[in-house]
Amino acid sequence: MENTVSFGVIGCGLMGREFASASLRWLHLKGDLPRPRIIAACDTNEENLNWFRKDPDTKFFYRDYRDMLKNPQIEAVYVAVPHFLHARVYGDVIRAGKHLLGEKPFGMDQKAFEEIEKAMAERPDVFVRCTSEFPYYPAVQQMIAWFREGKFGRIIEAKFSIRHSSDMDLSKPINWKRTLAANGAYGCMGDLGIHVQHLPFRLGLMPRTVNAVLANLVKERRDAQTGEMRPCETWDNAILLCEGESPAGDRFPMTFEMKRMAPGCGNTVEYEIYGMELSAGFSTDDPNALRYTVSRGQEQAWARLPVGQKTLYPVITGGIFEFGFSDALLQMFAAYISELKGLPCAFPCFTPREAKKSHELLTAALMANEEGKTVRLSQDAPGR
Ligand SMILES: NC(=O)c1ccc[n+]([C@@H]2O[C@H](COP(=O)([O-])OP(=O)(O)OC[C@H]3O[C@@H](n4cnc5c(N)ncnc54)[C@H](O)[C@@H]3O)[C@@H](O)[C@H]2O)c1
């Protein structure tokens, strides 16, 4: 009989569907990791809910997630709903005793995160993780391996960025990400922050201080329903300049860029770590490769190393073929299932402790921007 984990999905939009697609592509993974079987779907939007009728595993359909949580057949729940709902829905999932894979930013703000934390304290038997897929690109995993082997030497600088450009289209209607009520004060930082934090936090590259420049560049957009202009209340772009510290005690400049208005970008994720002995950079613009340079005295020449499908969880695809976004999601879901089942997991999903640090950083960034000053962060390092 097939070895599976019975899932419910709350939020059948963009990300809910990605999970459904990955769950039906499990054959792609070698080995016998239990497959997530999405037996139940829940959405308040009928059209989005109906999309799940295409999933042969989905037998139960709900409009109210509280009804779904009463279903004893469901072991774990993936939640992909707008940010203002995270605290309530994640808390209810945990209290119902269902394992949770929640979406970023894992609570709309620090207070919302603390509410989720309370639920976790009440149910320590429930396994909880947050999504973040980009570190699962094999080229990023190669960077991680080099870092853990100490190949970078003393860290000089580190940069982590994600840049979108779809909002450059000024005729694009307003969506929930541009409203304070649904996305919170973090704006683009809540939406994009964890994508730039998972890798450094896990490597123990921690911000000690933060300065921030936040920009609201497009102040109103058309409402798709009414055609009227509505105010865009949240930040479009954010640049955080931090003093970072490595596990070896090196102090260095560290930047986090989260932008919804970046000309020419798609969903461009870039990770760069510069060291005295080795420097390396990854970009989703060249997802199959890692750029690196080894320092030889006065000379450093950049090289491009094609990495291909050297995935954390082996796949049927030949090693020479390219790796992409949906492959990264498959690897991330595999990591969640492995950890849930107590199986070996070399690079776990973003943890609640890391989410706590993320909220500390983003809350401090809001203050740094507001007051135009450097804000000092606590010295705990969840990834070390
Ligand atoms: N990991 C990633 O790369 C990634 C990418 C995009 C979005 N996200 C995250 O995923 C989450 C959802 O974003 P999205 O882009 O999928 O949004 P979306 O708008 O496409 O989907 C959200 C869905 O939630 C539904 N919903 C709203 N209220 C609900 C309720 N009370 N009960 C049940 N369903 C409800 C909506 O009808 C919609 O179908 C957010 O936290 C976002 O930050 C993650």
Please supply descriptive tags for the structure shown above.
nine-stranded mixed beta sheet, Dihydrodipicolinate Reductase, domain 2, 29% helix, six-stranded parallel beta sheet, globular, alpha/beta, binds nicotinamide-adenine-dinucleotide, Rossmann fold, single chain, 384 residues, 26% strand
How would you describe the overall organization of this protein?
This protein is α/β, with parallel strands linked by helices and 384 residues long. It has two domains: 4-130, 3-Layer(aba) Sandwich (Rossmann fold); 135-323 and 351-376, Dihydrodipicolinate Reductase, domain 2, CATH 3.30.360.10. It contains ten helices and 17 strands. The protein is globular, with a radius of gyration of 21 Å. The chain starts with a strand and ends in an 8-residue tail after the last strand.
